[in-house]
Amino acid sequence: MASRIAPTIVRSIDVLDKDLSEWLRRHERECAENVETWMVRSLPVPAGVLVECWPDPAWRRALENVVVADGELTGFLRGADRERGVGVVVADGETVWSGAPALLVPHPVLIDELDDFRDFATELQVDQAIPQLYRETWAPPPEPAGDRVDDFAGGRFAQLGQATGRCRALGYAVSGGSAVTRVWEAARLVEARYWIGSESPDAPGTTGDLVWVAAGGRRLELREVGPVAYSEGMRMAALVYAGRAADEEEG
Fold first, then answer.
1. Cβ atoms within 10 A of the Cβ of 74, count?
2. Residue 167, number of CB atoms within 10 A of its CB
3. What is the dihedral of CA 51, 56, 62, 66, to 10 degrees?
4. CA distances to 62, 158, 175, 179 from 194, in Å
5. Phi/psi at 207 (5° precision)
6. What's the rounded Cα separation, in Å, for the pair 108 and 100?
7. CA 47, CA 51: separation in Å to the nearest integer?
């Protein structure tokens, strides 16, 4: 009897270990995705949330070394304590404990002296779990005109399905023939749309213009697009465009 029970127990333990490992990987991924969402939306995060999340190793990996700001100081998040507040390493290398009720996780395009923070991160050998300091950014032109960007138009894919597959692999939704990313900025939702085509998946695809629309579908003039929405839209288009057919690029 024991000889029959033992293998069953071993198999059960193996299944539990596999399930636990998968749950831990999923939990770690979800924590990082949440922190990245806070950054893309430049959301203020209550200090109490940081304090409660900090003991969890997955949350700590996602949060540690993220640049945060409380209105008076900006630096790398290094700790969260119920008594002392939120620990931030500032530019001179000292750890300052902030008692602010909430801290902002700013998008890199909004970080003053971004290059200085990058140099400081290199000096301290700072490793970020989310792409913040080294996230690709695009600043709007000084005098934006028109309602579209055509820098990434004309990218050819042998099959439209390759373009849509690339969008989804990069984490972008595809709707109505466009790759889509949504940004909540200045208390409004803005959607960047980059045309990739709406033909059959096995038909050739060619990219088109990048535009931004407000809630309700109204297309925005470039002068109406905020810096985060502009940067994230350009980043999406650049990443998708980079997957175009190499022979077409050379041609």
1. 19
2. 22
3. 30
4. 29, 18, 10, 5
5. -75, 155
6. 21
7. 6
CA atoms within 13 Å, Cβ hemisphere of 81: 9
**pLDDT attached to residue 125:** 85
Q: What is the mean pLDDT of the chain?
A: 89
pLDDT single digits (tens) 70-122? 988 999 999 999 999 999 998 888 899 999 999 999 999 999 889 888 998 88
Question: Residue 215 class from Cβ within 10 Å (0-12 exposed, 13-18 middle, 19+ buried)?
Answer: exposed
CATH of domain 156-250: 3.30.310
pLDDT of residue 248: 44
Which positions ≥6 away from 198 have C-beta within 8 Å? 176, 177
**Burial grade of 171 (CB within 10 A; 0-12, 13-18, 19 or more):** exposed
Q: Which residue has the higher pLDDT, 42 or 87?
A: 87
Domain boundaries, given as residue ranges, for the chain: 2-124, 156-250
Quick check: 22 pLDDT over 60? yes
Exposed, middle or buried: residue 159 (CB in 10 Å: 0-12, 13-18, 19+)? middle
Length of the chain: 251
Distance CA 231, CA 209 (A): 15
